[in-house]
From TrEMBL:
The keyword Disulfide bond is assigned to this record: no
Pfam families xref list: DUF456 (PF04306)
Keywords, sorted A to Z: Membrane, Transmembrane, Transmembrane helix
PANTHER family named among the record's database cross-references: DUF456 DOMAIN-CONTAINING PROTEIN, IG HYPOTHETICAL 17883
InterPro entries, sorted: DUF456 (IPR007403)
Segments traversing the membrane: 50-68, 88-113, 133-159
Name of the protein described by the UniProt record: DUF456 domain-containing protein
Length: 166
């Protein structure tokens, strides 16, 4: 049973890393689940401090994933229309069956939102849309780093207690 949980946790780690790059999957959440599964084995002793800290980190990163693209839009001069457009475009871009919809959606959403706000200033709308993409990429990079951190922690814990698994 321990070997099964170890393999399942490892798969969660890999899917979490992939999910940090694809907005359809909650990468940090799946990676955290891999850490939780590790502690259900009889070999690795449960460390509730590690689980608590990684849970808080997962929740914060998941929250920031939705906030940072909108903040990027605002930082680059976008209005509330652009921020709402970014969020709506992000959701629609994930659902839409188009390639790279998760990148195109926030950009188009911010651009259209800014054009609704002020249709005469296309340069401002493009700048705000660029900010939404930069914010989205920053958020994705943060998720990727957190998932890599969780993976390193997982490998470290398994390596330290490896004699009990095989």
């Amino acid at each position: 049973m321990d070997t099964f949980l170890l393999i399942l946790g490892f798969c969660c780690m890999l899917i979490g890393i992939l999910g940090s790059l694809l907005p359809v999957l909650p990468g940090p959440g799946i990676s955290w689940l891999g850490l939780v599964l590790l502690y259900f084995t009889n070999t690795v002793p449960a460390n509730y401090w590690v689980l608590s800290i990684t849970l808080v980190l997962t929740l914060v990163i998941s929250y920031l994933d939705y906030i940072i693209p909108a903040k990027g839009t605002k930082h680059f001069g976008g209005s509330k229309f652009g921020i709402w457009g970014t969020n709506i475009g992000l959701v629609l871009g994930i659902i839409a069956p188009i390639p790279f919809g998760f990148l195109i959606g926030p950009f188009l959403g911010a651009f259209i939102g800014e054009l609704i706000y002020d249709s005469t200033n296309k340069k401002r709308a493009f700048r705000a849309a660029t900010g939404s993409i930069i914010g989205f990429l920053a958020s994705t990079f943060m998720q990727f780093l957190v998932c890599l951190l969780f993976f390193g922690l997982y490998i470290s814990l398994v390596w330290r207690h490896k004699e009990g698994f095989f």
